[in-house]
């Protein structure tokens, strides 16, 4: 039924795609059934569709290109994440891809949109080789009503075919897999990889280009939620730092878990769903996310407990980056529409495997700018035997791989907003305490949650703070729900001298990383840099 209607209204001929069957706008149930029928998935004990994304189980940032043309040549900040490609290659690949798609017995097409604030809405048409990729699009982008579909015109098109590979020598790519954005043609081509996250981050990249330049909206790699009194909080952070986990809070309405815009009136979600990590997920620690794994949810790259359909959330057999996508309303207290007022609190999340940064500290405006531009986190380098040293990562604005403009643009906009509004900014270390990775341990999620709750409730406002050396961060001496000895890293390391050594090394990394921004910021922001010596002894 759905399919018959679909064939009448959707044609892809203008893209050079002539295929037998187009499955248009199918329901999650039908997409799930089709995936099962094609032997591409299984159903978990709680009813979620489990698929494997293939060779790629994560994004491939080195294979993402932006077409360099009259529009982008002088507006895109060309760097390792924004690599130029000639329009000629884009056109050639689009044609080849259309040929490949035309050979498929069927394609899946879905119309959706992004930006919960109607003023900025962009319609997206997604064309997929597989049904399960199309379920991801259903979950992650916003879902137009039947009425809206009648007049739907796509602003942007994504063509995604995991089975189509480029020929690097002929097609101007680095590898057979690629994601190419053309702002002129308003298209994203994704080939050679089935990792679904490429679709959402492709759209995030275009919004990070369009919104700040054309709409004066600050686009942000952050999660967001709102309290009963209408107080908005946003949580910036690189991958794995806790955006999704910490924004799911039973006492606050969820706005979104990853991508938002900040307008003159408030914040809004770009997406219509969440994309949560599943590794070591438990119902006790993350009840909201756990409960969202039900029919309609799409689980990626997990394995079952042998002989059952129970997901083994601890298993890393395929990847550590196991994921689940689900529509926003699968979280019981999600806000609809996903918009809220001007943030009262901003959290910068870092997962510091060096164990140097305090679990919570309050930032001055200048420190906030310094840490925003730095975008620090330190993940453990790998899970392979022997690789145990944390690797410091600096990613401007907590999202360099997705930012087509110079980081200074986003930083300037945040700076103006911090000046304009009364906002508290907190730095949260969701990583190691009591030592670096290897000797210390990851801070308990319940402690991090308690610290965030205390900050949001104003319970940290009138407390005593102490100043941490090197980073000169204001650390509260007490926090409700958290043992006080957890709060000051220099005191909770077994050996203060070892802490000093590690802190000095990290301070050095910060300063070195910041050199490229030094000439573009004020003296006050520069003065918020860490110092290389313990200035308190
Ligand atoms: P991405 O941008 O890749 O989606 P993210 O910022 O949303 O990443 P999460 O998906 O929230 O990151 O991942 C944080 C992971 O760290 C989760 O698996 C969570 O269970 C785990 N974790 C452990 N301890 C903590 C803590 N104290 N605070 C936050 N997360 C923690
Ligand atoms: Mn996330």
From TrEMBL:
Compartments, record wording: Cytoplasm
Gene Ontology cellular-component annotations: cytosol
Pathway recorded for this protein: Carbohydrate biosynthesis; gluconeogenesis
Chain positions recorded as Mn(2+) binding sites: 201, 221, 258
Binding site for substrate: 59, 195, 201, 323
Cofactor mode of binding and number, as noted: Binds 1 Mn(2+) ion per subunit.
One GO MF term attached to the UniProt entry: ATP binding
UniProt keyword annotation of Ribonucleoprotein present: no
Record keywords: ATP-binding, Cytoplasm, Decarboxylase, Gluconeogenesis, Kinase, Lyase, Manganese, Metal-binding, Nucleotide-binding, Pyruvate, Transferase
Cofactor: Mn(2+)
Catalytic activity, reaction form: oxaloacetate + ATP = phosphoenolpyruvate + ADP + CO2
Gene Ontology process terms (BP): gluconeogenesis
Record-listed E.C. numbers: 4.1.1.49
PROSITE patterns per record: PEPCK_ATP
Amino acids binding ATP: 201, 221, 237-245, 286, 323, 442-443, 448
InterPro entries registered for this protein in UniProt: PEP_carboxykinase_ATP, PEP_carboxykinase_C, PEP_carboxykinase_N, PEPCK_ATP_CS
The organism's place on the tree of life at top rank: Bacteria
Protein purpose: Involved in the gluconeogenesis. Catalyzes the conversion of oxaloacetate (OAA) to phosphoenolpyruvate (PEP) through direct phosphoryl transfer between the nucleoside triphosphate and OAA.
Family: Belongs to the phosphoenolpyruvate carboxykinase (ATP) family.
The protein's name: Phosphoenolpyruvate carboxykinase (ATP)
Native species: Phnomibacter ginsenosidimutans
Gene: pckA
